[in-house]
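Dear U.,

Please find below the material for section 3 of the report. The protein was modelled together with pyridoxal-5'-phosphate; I have listed the sequence and SMILES used, followed by the predicted complex structure.
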Amino acid sequence: VNLASVETPAAVVDLSLVGANISRVVDYCRSHGIGWRPHVKTHKNRRLAQMQLDAGAIGLTVATPHEARVMSAVTDDLLLAYPPVGRVKIRRLMDLPEQVRLSVALDSVAVLEPLAKAAQQAGKTVGVLVELDVGAKRVGVSSAAEAIGIARLAAELEGVEYRGIAFYPGHIRSPQTEQGPALAQLSQVLADYLGSLGEADLEPRVVSGGSTPTLFRSHELPQLTEIRPGTCIFYDRDIAGMGVTTWNDLAYTVLATVVSVAVPGRAAIDAGSKALSKEAFRSSGDGYGVLLEHPEVVVASLSEEHGVLDITNTTWRPKVGERVRVVPNHVCVSVNLQDRLLVEEEGRLEAWAIDGRGRGLAPTSPVGV
Ligand SMILES: Cc1ncc(COP(=O)(O)O)c(C=O)c1O
């Protein structure tokens, strides 16, 4: 089997680039004494997670109970970086294999109390990281008093154990070289939280943060014990636009076929929003992706099954039937749209399941797992 014979659109992963990308993160983390707990939401695949663990990741980060179950086959150390709300989600966490050491990032008593109760009834101890909002304005408490309140309750309740704090610096998306002031400010915010928690006798053992945009400047937050970047296994147009990586490291592309060149200045491919996603480009520029081999060619617009390339700024003259590789703006969302990953290594091609995709629910049962 080779790429010329597969039906498009198809998600293609270059495994040797994946290996190099993983090594780069592990080497960086080792040289700065930081743990890497990759977020698996990017790939949702057990074998890629296993590669990250074999290289030195300290455990994995997940967003859903299904990702937790899938990844419990490859690690005993999981962080759910998402507040589990509702009985079904909590039950699924309690059903994880006995040996799994689970931590949960949360920001309210409303999440903490039912989790503690369920864990106590199940005879388990779940770790708690108090989630802080340090600027992303998504989840997380925004004062030391709130953080202390939740941490203290977590330390007191049966079924849970206070382990530390977590935050996601999703507001820092500027080019890597321009992140200094935002990181310095964040470091001060963290120092203030740590000071207050220390005075309350609630010093965190774990300080979990990190993102791919800030990955290689994580050492500027000396408080961190672990980081959770996930996109760094593949990278994408957004991250390359921030200067975090080079074009040569992009390990994931959507293979597509040119289906029409009838409209002057345009070429249509068979990868639309159902393969690339309609995530906006957040660095400078527009469109929904670019061609790997012709980075001057932007996917200017998308319908569900059509991607429309702007070919006014290139000498490349596409022909119907020609194949192209598209670098999506945001790789994690594109992966989630695929049936499988076509993994290429030294000329060999294998199909790998996107195991953690979806909720893992039985299609014929309204609530059943
Ligand atoms: C809670 C949390 N941690 C870590 C990450 C990983 O960040 P990145 O996508 O920058 O690799 C994300 C990304 O959305 C996240 O939501």
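For the text of the report, you could mention the following: The longest strand covers residues 252-260.

Regards,
Y.
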